[in-house]
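Appendix B: a complete holo record

For completeness, this appendix reproduces one full record from the ligand-bound portion of the collection. The bound molecule is S-adenosylmethionine. The inputs are the chain sequence and the ligand SMILES; the output is the full three-dimensional arrangement of the complex, encoded as structure tokens. No fields have been trimmed.
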Amino acid sequence: MADASRSSYPSLLLPNLSQISIPFLINSYPPIVCKKSQIRFSVSAKSNDGLKVAETTTKTIPWGCETDSLENASALQQWLSESGLPPQKMEIDKVDVGERGLVALKNIRKGEKLLFVPPPLVISPDSEWTRREAGEVLRRNFVPDWPLLATYLISEASLMKSSRWSNYISALPRQPYSLLCWTRSELDMYLVASQIRERAIERITDVTGTYNDLRLRIFSKYPHLFPEEVFNMETFKWSFGILFSRLVRLPSMEGKVALVPWADMLNHSSEVETFLDYDKSSQGIVFTTDRSYQPGEQVFISYGKKSNGELLLSYGFVPEEGTNPNDSVDLPMSLNKSDKCYKEKLQALRKHGLSTAQRFPLQITGWPLELMAYAYLVVSPPNMSQHFEEMAAAASSKTTIKKDIKFPEIEEQALQFTLDCCESSISKYNKFLEGSGSLDVVVTSPKQANRKLLLKQLAIDLCTSERRILFRAQYILRRRLRDMRTGELRALRILDGFKKLFK
Ligand SMILES: C[S@@+](CC[C@H](N)C(=O)[O-])C[C@H]1O[C@@H](n2cnc3c(N)ncnc32)[C@H](O)[C@@H]1O
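The structure of the chain with S-adenosylmethionine bound, as generated:
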């Protein structure tokens, strides 16, 4: 599965976003009054090292609503049923997990199909544009699905009541909490210890690049269709934030991407595996429950097997500690610049699409074979140069060659190197978590204070769960090294004993 944050698309020929696979699909929400509200906020924050970061951001997103209210839910539900959504066994309500969600109205059995959202109620790259000409310009320029949908959403949102999606758009979150919507200083301050910070920065760079490319190649040539007051960086961040947190890929429609109103009110649980898809027999978007629900219980789907960091990156939440079996933490590793064979090793890595610095995902249950292959390469001495190529190939996730390589003569060094990397990461997490109490921010409104508190809590939850995995890896590595060393010691003692005997 391609990952959006790893794709780079510096130009409009950037089909990358369109290739992102989104394992679950959710999307939009309740309807109603497109009231023009504006959010403006200015932030003045202190960074982790105590330096005052002066940042003043003015953001104006005139669409959507607060997700902690149900202000537009009944209008959305009414519009959907008038537009062809069949009667449902669920309704939108306030929930403990996810603020708003779909809650069972009746007993729901395991194995039951739910939703049946008809295709005309789905937003896809083929949807008709209210401003037809704008859609034609984008299609003529072969704009890929993701930027096309992001532009579509802004175009329809700006039309307010004149868009057929007005009820849906006014029920979308005004401010998605994905990392795309964190400022650079928020990322630097709260996610300094986590590798997710890098992925968030890559994603923001990708989205910014996409917007700039669209502006240069298309929007600036058709200012009457794409005025900058409407199609700007802020509105693109909003629409990409909506796509990252709600767009789904429908496997039975050849992977078509879509926003599925109503279905996108379903929240994620790591305890279920069911996901949205098109059902040919009922000709609607459905999911099949993999557990039963009582009336009043929140119904969940799975957004895919994602780590807590990935859930924060795209969806803006972190599951409770220890509840996500797919959780992982990226461990950064890099070649030593003073290595005598630095050039040869780098060459071998480059040949297999790797670089001097790599990230490998650790899970509570262990780490990938690629990590060990990379560690072997880093610690191997010059007399093992004939194996550099084999090690680099095994370290790449793109090759299919045998990954389970073993070099007993340098295994101890490779494990020690991995342990050092873990411990260096742990110390960063310790520093952040121990200092997080003093991460004070200067805020100018209660709303802003709430936002800061929320982001800080999310960062603390993420770092605690990532550090837990690192602690586990540290324990396993220390034990292996101890066993190895005591084994070696025993062998040395036996050898010594023999020597004495022969003397
Ligand atoms: C597809 S929407 C689901 C509907 C959303 N709750 C709403 O009110 O619009 C995805 C968003 O729901 C929230 N969400 C989903 N699952 C969650 C969970 N397990 N815990 C906390 N928030 C969750 C996150 O804000 C995420 O970005």
